[in-house]
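(Protein data)
===
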Amino acid sequence: MKICKILLSFLLFTSVYLNAQPLTLSLERTITLAADSSLEAFRTKNMFLAGYWQYRTFKAGRLPSLTLNLTPAQYYRDITRRYDSENDIDVYRKQQSYYAEGGLAIKQNFDLLGGTFYLDSDLGYMRNFGDNAYNQFTTVPIRIGYNQSLLGYNPFRWERKIEPLKYEKAKKELLYNIENISEQATSYFFALAMAQAEYDLAKENVASTDTLYQTGQERHKIASINKAELLTLKLDAVNARNTLQNAEISLKRAMFSLASFLNFDKNTEIRLNLPGRPKDMHISVDEALTLARENNPKFLDTKQQVLEAEQQVDKTKKEAMFNASINASIGFNQVATKLSDAYRDPLQQDMVSVSVSIPLVDWGVRKGKHNIAKNNLNVTQISARQEELTVEEDVIMTVGDFNIQQNLISSAEEALDLAVMAYSETKQRFMIGKADINSLTLSLNRQQEA
C-alpha cells in the first residue's frame, strides 16, 4: 500500500512538472502545427471535401444508373362507376381489388444532345375479389427508349464545362488557403517574438534606469547634478517600470493569440526558437504574375462566374422559344393469368410521343429574363476583369515591397547596433560624470526607437 502511494505521488508530480514545462516552437514546427491542427485548417479541408464530393457526384451522373421501383401492395375496396353495355347506362358497383408491381430501370444521360437513354423491365399483378374473382399478370420483359427536349436547353453540356473547373478551383483553393494559414502562423509567431523581445528590452531598461537613478542620487549628493536632472532620472525609472508592465501584457496577449490559433490550451506557455536571417533573394515581377495566374484560385473563380452567366443566357434564350420534346421506345409486353404465361410469346410494344409548347402571349416575361441574363453577363465579365487587374496589381506591389524589404532589414540591423553602442557608451560616460542627462535621455530614446 505504501509503494502504491509513492508511485501515485511520483506520477502526479511528473504530470504537474511536464504540464509546467514551456512548449518550444520553431517557425517550421509552428507552420506544420497550424496546417494540421488549427481550426482554420479544419475549415479549409472540409471546404475542399465539399468540392471533391460535388465533383464525384458530377462524375457519377455521367455513368449509367440502376433503379428498382416497387409498389408491393395497393388495395382498394370501394364503390366505383362503371358502364353497363347491356343497358347502355352508367351504374355504381362494388369493387375490391389488389395490385402490386415492380421494375428495374437503367438510365444513361447523353451529354452531347441532352437526352436520356433508358432500358427497363416491368412486372405487374392484379387480383379482383368478389363473385367474378380473377387475377392477371402483365409483363414488359424489355423496353429500350430515348427521350429528349428538342431545340431546348442542354444542362449536361454546361455541367461538363463548369464542374471540372469548380473542382480545379477547389484544389487550388485548398493549397491557397494552406499557404494563407502558414502566413497567419508566421505572423503570430513573429508577433510573439517581437513581444518577447520588447519584454526583454523593457526588463533591461528597468535595470538600467534603476542603476542610473542610484548613480544620479550619489552624484546629486556631491552636487554633480541638480534636482531637476535627478527627477528626470527617477521619471525614466518609473516610465521603464510602466513600459515593462505594458510589455508583459502584450507578451501574454501575443502568446494567447498564437496558442489559440494553433488550437492549444489557452494557458500554454510558449518559447520560440527563432530562425536565422533568410538569404537575400530577388523575385521577378513577370515570374510572380505568371505563377499567380497559374495558381491563384481567383482567376478560376472569375472564369467560373462568366461561364455560369453564359449558362443563364443560353437557358433563358432557349426557354424564350417554343419547347418541343420527343420520347420513343420499343419493347415487348404480354398479359396472362399465370406468371409463366406472361413471359411467353410477348407482343411488340412501340411508342413515339412528340409534345410541343408554344408561348403565345406572356407580355414579355421570357424576353425580359433573357435581357436580364445578358446584362448580368456583361456585368460579370467587367467584374471579372476588374478582379484580375486587382490581383495583378496586388502581386506587383507585394513583389516590389518584398524586394525593398531586403535592403531595409540590413539598414535596420545596422541602426540597432549603432543605437545600442551609442547608449552603452553614453551610459558609461554618464556614470563617470562625462555626459549630461540630456545626452543620456536622447541616446536611450534612440535605442528604443531602433
Summary: The CA atoms of residues 159 and 169 lie 15 Å apart. The two ends are 63 Å apart (CA to CA). DSSP finds nine helices and eight strands in the chain.
